[in-house]
Request: fold
Amino acid sequence: MKKAGNEIFAYWIMKVRIQGNSLRFRLKQPEVAALKENDQITEEICFGEAPAESLRFVLACGNGPAFSIHYMPGNFTAMVPREVMRHWTESEQTGIEEDVMLPSGRNIHLLIEKDFKCLNGTDKENSGTFPNPMEAC
Reply:
C-alpha cells in the first residue's frame, strides 16, 4: 500500500519504463491526484533491506522554467516545471514529452503519460486508470 496525503491507496504503482536513453512514467488517476497534492510521487524497487539496496524514481514539480533530471546512486529525479505539471494534472492533456539535456551533454527523452484502461485488462489491472478513448470506437 502507498500513502498520498491523508489517503491510502492499495495497488497503485507508477509505471516506469526505460528504453535506451528514454524514460517513461505512466500514472493512474490516484497517482496524478497525489502528484498534484504533494508536488511529487516516488516509485521504489527494493533489492534488500538497506536503503542503499533500493532504486528510486521520483517525478516532481520544479520551481524553475526548465525540465531537469538529477541522478545520484540509487536515486533518479525528473523535475517538471510547476506550471507545465499543473496544466497536465488539471486538464485532458494525456502526456508531457521533453528531451532533457544533461550537464554531460547527453539527452534523456522524458515522457509522462496518464495511464489508460487496458481494453483487455482485468479489473485489478484497470483499477484507477483513466477512461480509454479507444473504448468509444
